[in-house]
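Section 3.1 - Work completed
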Amino acid sequence: MIALRQGALEIRQFLRSREQVVFTMAFPVLMIVIFASIFDGEIGGGVRFTQYFVTGMIATGLMTAGFQALAIQIPIERDRGVLKRLRGTPMPPWVYFAGKVLMVAFIAVAETILLLVVATLLFDLELPSSGRLWLTFLWVAALGTTACTLCGIAFSSLARTGRSAPAVVTPVALVLQFISGVFFVFTSLPTWMQQVAAVFPLKWMCQGLRAVFLPGSFGAQEPGGSFELGTVALVLGAWCVLGLALCLTTFRWTTRRDG
């Protein structure tokens, strides 16, 4: 119950920040409106650009909610002494993280639904046609969001101050988007760039979502010759484990100047 109350508090605080709401939730929607309006043709194989592009926008929305938002928000709270005060209360530490997880889940679900509604109504997005595809959508989104959330909490320890957090986090997020097939067809990127992207979760999130929204025959155009859903699950699961390990070993409740 206390975790639910903490989650509700985190969600209310998020909704009160107009800048956060606009950037986190509206950014993927704005991007698909812009890109789908400019590129309204096909990328090949009877697949419209919007159908391909929506997979990257969903994935980057999940990454923004989990990784980028937390990696910026937590250093700000640390800098303001919020974490230090919480650490001094009887509230168990896990409740703080549970609140963050619930907030990320709320944002991820809300922005994904909003994105699908806009893309379907305005750009004739074809939604998954079977329960199997929706199940794939759910586990890819769940694993990807979990990995990004844990990595966001771990990455929050790199920023020296709350003010520097956006400058540390935003370039990393943008680079990952450009090399992971969010804005471009992944196989059109240089081979070395594809190999670098394959180390990180976002590329596999995009690939897993392409298996949901694109025809099965389109998998032959992937670098591995198929959508490789087994590999998608393994890589995202590995990042969940690595992210948790980094959280447990690197998270700080106080700033460096506080010791």
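Second construct:
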Amino acid sequence: MNRAVPRVRLVVPTTGRRPYYIRQCLDSIRRQSQPVEIVIVGPTAAASLLESLAMRYRCRFVAERATGLSNAVNQGWEGADADYLGWLGDDDLLAQGAVAVAIEELDRNAAAAMVYGRVRVIDAESNHIYTIRPGRLASWFIKYGQNFVWQPGSLYRRAALGKAGLLDPSLHYAMDYDLHLRLRQQGSLSYVPRLLASYRRHPEALTALNPDPYAERLIVMRRYLGPVARSLEGCWWPAAKYTCRAWGYAQILTGRREKPAPAS
């Protein structure tokens, strides 16, 4: 394994309530072929567990100063001098070789503000449900409220983040969507047709707790629409919503038939 100075910092925000998942998450990062600087950010109430995990996985634990996922990730990114930054939910997994693939793409494409790829959806027991293959069109759909640029496995250029700004703590569910739209203003969103991560679907997952998946996303979308698109939203939004929803269903149906690749 390459032991060079890490070019990537990944933040793992956690409440400390799912130690089994956290260990799987950290295992998937430590198995990468490229070195990664890991920063665990969590509550002081879970400090004993998280400090022991930090020692075991040779990383750093930082007690959160404020609650919320966005605050935790922003805090974990503070002072970073790595070329590339990202975060991974404590219940998600990186695919084998994901960091190397992401670094290679960002090194190759200097105009890219971030890289994203395919994401496998798994259940609470890590069984494959389906695979999302967003493709290059996802970076166009995202402008119109359709978020197929999934955060797990994505990696951001630190310089682009410095210009776009960090996560918005006022958002509870669409903070990644908002960030990706701002990064889109700084450069391209580069797609690699490779499995980069697994997203775990379970009752306590953030998206499962969202009562209205479109509500906050619409608020964010309207921040970045031009005046013409904003004035005509009532005309194009229903068509965009249902067209992209159909595309999403097709992704799920074909993704269920796809042979699962190793997630970590």
